[in-house]
Design a protein that fits this description.
By secondary structure, the protein is an alpha+beta fold. It has 20 helices and 24 strands. Among the domains are: about 200 residues, 2-Layer Sandwich (Heat Shock Protein 90), CATH 3.30.565.10; about 160 residues, Ribosomal Protein S5, domain 2 (2-Layer Sandwich). Helix 4 packs across helix 5, helix 8 runs parallel beside helix 10 and helix 12 packs across helix 18.
């Protein structure tokens, strides 16, 4: 068959995107997305450049300010970006950095031994995606400045004044382009999480975050002389450490700088976070593999030598030893190789060798010098091994009964459609609400699973207890995926898992218990966007046979203002889902055409902080939870007490 070509497709139809136009044309290729996550990435890129100065030994303080107009300023006291003419480009080096892709001190030119950032494209990408950007440099006793608009240089680099010779650094202020981003409003807490983490990973670096958008400015200062040891202490604040020390290993091998800090607590979760050149690697990689092999081998060797494990005993698995272990693994490497463009996983084999060797040697020495701590670790690991065996038996029993009966939970009202893409399941608090929901639902696509009261807090329970809990077992069976190593996303029976609880504090607690279970045992459901929170109304307003629903006090006041505040208004305040009849439930949280659902998402860049928040909110220690609530309560709106 002859091929037919478009005659107009010739040489002139091949587009050449000049300068930074490629970035503006395809921003997702450079910052991942144009969502809120991509927006915040702009700040990280400028901060990462300043952190590179700190890693090189020249920067001690970074100040990040969200300005009143919504722009962001990043100030550092590093050496200042060079201002001399770059011989290859024929323009000042600072202009090269901000206007030419793949330009910077990160490509083997001796500028930086190790660095983070987007392969050296950070500053120019931020410039390209900003409505305007201004840079000010303090260097060699002079102050220089230049302005750009959407990546274009507005005027030559100017000498704006003088400063003391010993005052150096760079100030970058930028306004994200509203034509590019879905939102240009920066979230203070998102920046705070990332900058706190950066300060932990860069020992002795001081980072100040300010927000000047409100009448009363917010400010946090992060400065940790203990580095990642303090990071582990911070992450363990919601749990009780099993021993006082944070075990620390540090060294260099084959050009790889290695830092590892770890401490066991009384929880049952493995909270490991790994970083390369201060960039989190959510999927781990060679450095994490090296740590795990060294830890498993070293603890087993010690347990055998001290007769904690007899000859007939099975060796401890890595999972046994890592139960309740909080770990930070940080490596610095000159040329990191990442699997995939998103830097999710480190591929350098030398990182595995380096981490394995350093942790094996230094952990062995630590255990020999600290036999009491070593015994605590071995005892907890052996207890975990026994519990894991009990969990395996419980899991097998659950599998066996499921296979024998081939039955879904008795209280599940399933839907008739068998295509998971069309199906959704409502996890409903209480039998009365469950009954109304079963009546209200669309039977073809909506399943209802009522739960009785508050489910088990899995933050305080091992897997064997979880399999013994009726409510959790019902959810596991209904979803169809299994948990932990049995988990298989392909077997998911519903592509929307909707948690529907009362719109009060008790309902929020139940929802948090469910989210804790899903995060700890089925995190992929959250990662792939299958988990939602229903939004039931707080008020029903009726006037002249017309009905309105309000989800908070502000909406109630707005509706009353629109319809008039008079004696004809009938206002019903819902105390819970059980007070709503089937029609009302359908009209509000259940009808796909009218309802509002909140999708539960997680940013894998924040995994260490997510782990810490769950441990703080759901752990045994009251004081950290009280501090968390006090710190965040003033930013919560419409909390129903």
């Amino acid at each position: 068959m002859d091929q037919v070509f478009d005659q107009e497709y010739g040489a002139d139809q091949i587009q050449i995107l000049e300068g930074l136009e490629a970035v503006r044309k395809r921003p997702g290729m450079y910052i991942g997305s144009t969502s809120e996550r991509g927006l915040h990435h702009l700040v990280y890129e400028i901060v990462d450049n300043a952190v590179d100065e700190a890693l090189a030994g020249y920067c001690t303080h970074i100040i990040v300010t969200i300005n009143r107009d919504g722009s962001v300023t990043v100030i550092d006291d590093g050496r200042g970006i060079p201002t001399g003419i770059n011989s290859k480009a024929g323009i000042p080096a600072v202009e090269v950095v901000f206007t030419i892709l793949h330009a910077g001190g990160k490509f083997g030119g001796g500028g930086y031994k190790v660095s983070g950032g987007l392969h050296g494209v950070g500053a120019s990408v931020v410039n390209a995606l900003s409505e305007w950007l201004m840079v000010e440099i303090r260097r060699d006793g002079h102050v220089y400045g230049q302005r750009y608009e959407r990546g274009h240089t507005m005027y030559p680099l100017q000498r704006k004044g003088t400063c003391p010779e010993d005052v150096t650094g760079t100030t970058v202020t930028f306004m994200p382009d509203s034509k590019i981003f879905e939102t240009t409003v920066f979230d203070y807490n998102t920046l705070r999480t990332r900058l706190r983490e950066t300060a932990f990973l860069t020992r002795n670096l001081k980072i100040t975050l300010r927000d000047e958008r409100e009448e009363e400015a917010r400010e946090d200062v992060f400065h940790y002389e203990g580095g990642i040891k303090e990071f582990v202490t911070y992450l363990n604040r919601g749990s009780t450490p099993l021993y006082e020390d944070v075990i620390y290993c540090e060294g260099e091998r084959d050009g790889v700088l290695v830092e590892v800090a770890m401490q066991h607590n009384d929880s049952y979760n493995d909270a490991s976070s790994s970083f390369v050149n201060n960039i989190i690697t959510p999927e781990g990689g060679m450095h994490l593999s090296g740590f795990r092999s060294a830890l498993t081998r070293t603890i087993n060797n010690y347990a055998r030598e001290q007769k904690f494990l007899k000859e007939k005993d099975q060796p401890l698995t890595g999972e046994d030893i890592r139960e309740g272990l909080t770990t930070i693994i940080s490596v610095k490497i000159e040329e990191p190789q990442f699997e995939g463009q998103t830097k999710q996983k480190l591929g350098n084999s030398e990182a595995r060798t380096a981490v394995d060797a350093i942790v094996s040697e230094q952990l062995t020495y630590y255990l020999e010098q600290n036999p009491k701590v070593a015994k605590v670790i071995c005892d907890k690991s052996i207890l975990s091994q026994r519990a894991r065996e009990a969990a395996r038996k419980a899991r097998n029993a659950t599998r066996k009964s499921a296979l024998e009966s081939a039955a879904l939970p008795g209280k599940l009202a399933d839907c008739s459609d068998k295509d998971p893409k069309n199906c959704e399941i409502f996890i409903v608090e209480g039998d009365s609400a469950g009954g109304s929901a079963k009546t209200a639902r669309s039977r073809a696509t909506q399943a209802i699973l009522p739960l009785r009261g508050k489910i088990l807090n899995v933050e305080k329970a091992r897997e064997d207890r979880i399999y013994g809990n009726t409510e959790i077992r019902a959810m596991i069976t209904a979803f169809g995926t299994g948990i932990h190593e049995d988990f298989n996303i392909e077997k998911l029976r519903y592509h929307k898992i909707i948690i529907m609880t009362d719109a009060d504090v008790d309902g929020a607690h139940i929802a948090t218990l469910m989210l804790t279970f899903l995060y700890r045992f089925m995190p992929e459901l959250i990662k792939q966007g299958y988990v939602y929170l229903a939004m039931p109304p707080l008020y029903k307003i009726e006037k002249n046979k017309k009905i309105w629903y309000a989800y908070n006090d502000d909406e109630l006041n707005k509706i009353l203002t629109e319809i008039g505040r008079d004696g004809n208004n009938k206002i019903q305040r819902y105390k819970g889902l059980g007070e709503m009849d089937a029609e009302q439930l359908w009209e509000t949280p259940m009808d796909p055409a009218r309802r509002t659902l909140k999708k539960v998402t997680m940013n894998e860049d924040d995994l260490s902080d997510i782990n810490a928040v769950f441990a703080t909110l759901m752990g045994d220690k009251v004081e950290p939870r009280r501090e968390f609530i006090e710190e965040n309560a003033k930013y919560v709106q419409n909390l129903d007490i």
